[in-house]
Amino acid sequence: MLVQGTICAVTLYFNAPVTVKAMLGNAASHPVMAKSGIIYLQLISFFYPLCYTGGTFTGTYNGLGKMVLTLAGSTLQIALRVILTWFFFPHFGLTAPAIATSIGWLMANLFWFICLTRLRRQSLLQT
Q1: What percent of the chain has pLDDT over 70?
Q2: 31-45 vs 95-126: helix axis angle to the nearest 10?
């Protein structure tokens, strides 16, 4: 999944101008919006692999019947994204959600990695 996430991230980064132009239609009439959209997509593309690794963690935990870990990590990152977006928006504008989302994905992946390490340690101790 990390390879797929990296491919998508690179694709998103380099195709951000085309994507924004397609979304805005006549991007020339909205230069500030176009620039903000491109910056947002290019910034978040650096952290896109974390979205994919997060999906791997949640799939693993769901398969192990540990859905509470999926719920906890998802709730953590969503709450963090909302709070950080609210905090960063006056300072960073549209890049605030990209920064907040990136930090949220990072924290969720860190949480799930720690949980995985603890689950592995428990299973080694039980055998």
Answers
A1: 94
A2: 20
